Amino acid sequence: MTRKGDVLSVLLILIMWFSQGVKGVKFFNVKDFGAIGDDHFDSTKAFQSSWNEACKWREKAVIEIPRGNYLLRNLLFQGPCMGPINFHNSGTLKAHKINLGLNYWVEFRYVDGLAINGGGYFDGQGSESWLKIMEDTTPMNFLPITLMLDFANNTRIENMNFINSKGSHIKLNGCKNISVNQITILAPENSPNTDGINIALSRQIQVSNSKISTGDDCISILPGTEDVNITGTRCGPGHGISIGSMGLDPNELAVKGVNVKNCNFTNTQNGVRIKTWATKNIGKVAHISFESIVVNNASNPIIIDQNYCPSHQCPKGDSHIQINDVKFVDIMGVSQTYVAVNFRCSKYKPCEVETRNINLKYGSNKGPTISSCFNVKGVASGYQKPPSCIS
Ligand SMILES: *[C@@H]1O[C@H](CO)[C@@H](O)[C@H](O)[C@H]1NC(C)=O
Ligand SMILES: *[C@@H]1O[C@H](CO)[C@@H](O)[C@H](O)[C@H]1NC(C)=O
Ligand SMILES: *[C@@H]1O[C@H](CO)[C@@H](O)[C@H](O)[C@H]1NC(C)=O
Ligand SMILES: *[C@@H]1O[C@H](CO)[C@@H](O)[C@H](O)[C@H]1NC(C)=O
Ligand SMILES: *[C@@H]1O[C@H](CO)[C@@H](O)[C@H](O)[C@H]1NC(C)=O
């Protein structure tokens, strides 16, 4: 054999060794399936086919979305798949402006080991639908959620941007072990129903190092959710981080084990909130902590509202949701109103809360803040400004 032949065979062996080394990762570029990122072409079919093929690949599949603006209708990416999938989006996915007629725009269902990353955008193009909703009072069931994870396990959403959703930006429903890290969500302060992240019927959820600015709740934690940690996240504008609303439906499952830590709120309606409707539906909220929170101009920095009534027609009575073991620790900053701590609990099911080291002042030297208590018991310790009203 010649020297040249030797070199070639060594190269061949090296190439084979490397390709085995990456364990059969296969790339599925949406452009190879016909997607065109020119802002006009409808790439729905191309995205759907690339998912269908990636989902059949036995090992790791990477769906590659290069830079460009891809116009897309509803997409249902359904599993279970043969191997883990990385949805690597470096482009801008754009929803059609018209109502999409379904409750999601992009949905991943029955997936395990999915990663969504790549630094790109999901643009819900919601502004026309917001106007419609504000003119029209019919139910809002079909305001599509930008990104829905339905019964997904072991999934990461990382380094991704969400703007101007029609309904919520992200919803986790029936999920287990999901981490959301370093994302941004951005919609105008006056956009209706544009929640940042809704979490329902899910467990082992982590949200970290993210920035959420929107017209409704930054994060809401809904019935049947357990073991949620939210850290290093900024909210504002928006309606704060909420547990609930609870009590709308009978037989709701409890919310348990939620920790919100090292987060801040700037120009928000609420800071940390628990809200329940005043219905006879039973339910439970327990083992919740809000810790090391900075509030910079929230109307209601700390609030439990068991008489939640966002419109004019609400059930009237006493909430039957039991709220237990809720801790507010090291919460400081500026309240937009003088009632900085507001506990409006149910006469039927008084709340049990603990406050420790609270330091909230009213605007820029507008005077003292106060606490307001209805049907709340528990303990207050450390610094308390406003003075505690817990008995
Ligand atoms: C997710 O986990 C649940 C409970 O562990 C399991 O029943 C379900 O089949 C899993 N789903 C997928 C898509 O792997
Ligand atoms: C949670 O999911 C991640 C992948 O996102 C995985 O690496 C990790 O092992 C999972 N943890 C558990 C406890 O299953
Ligand atoms: C949340 O934090 C607690 C306490 O640090 C930890 O025990 C738990 O495993 C964490 N859960 C998740 C989903 O990160
Ligand atoms: C808000 O929180 C973020 C993330 O933890 C942090 O980077 C930022 O400095 C904080 N801002 C204020 C005003 O506390
Ligand atoms: C406080 O926040 C509200 C919105 O909630 C905003 O309209 C107002 O300008 C803010 N005030 C300051 C001093 O930033």
Automatic annotation (TrEMBL):
**Organism lineage:** Eukaryota, Viridiplantae, Streptophyta, Embryophyta, Tracheophyta
Q: Predominant location of this chain?
A: secreted
Q: Where is the signal peptide?
A: 1-24
- The active site lies at H239
Q: Which PANTHER family match?
A: PTHR31375
Q: Which PROSITE patterns match?
A: POLYGALACTURONASE (PS00502)
Q: Which UniProt keywords apply?
A: Cell wall, Cell wall biogenesis/degradation, Glycosidase, Hydrolase, Secreted, Signal
Q: Which domain of life is it from?
A: Eukaryota
Secreted keyword on record: yes
Q: Which organism is it from?
A: Spinacia oleracea
Q: What is the similarity comment for this entry?
A: Belongs to the glycosyl hydrolase 28 family.
Q: Where in the cell is it found?
A: Secreted, Cell wall
The gene behind this protein is: LOC130472088
Specify the protein name: Exopolygalacturonase-like
Q: Does the keyword Glycoprotein apply?
A: no
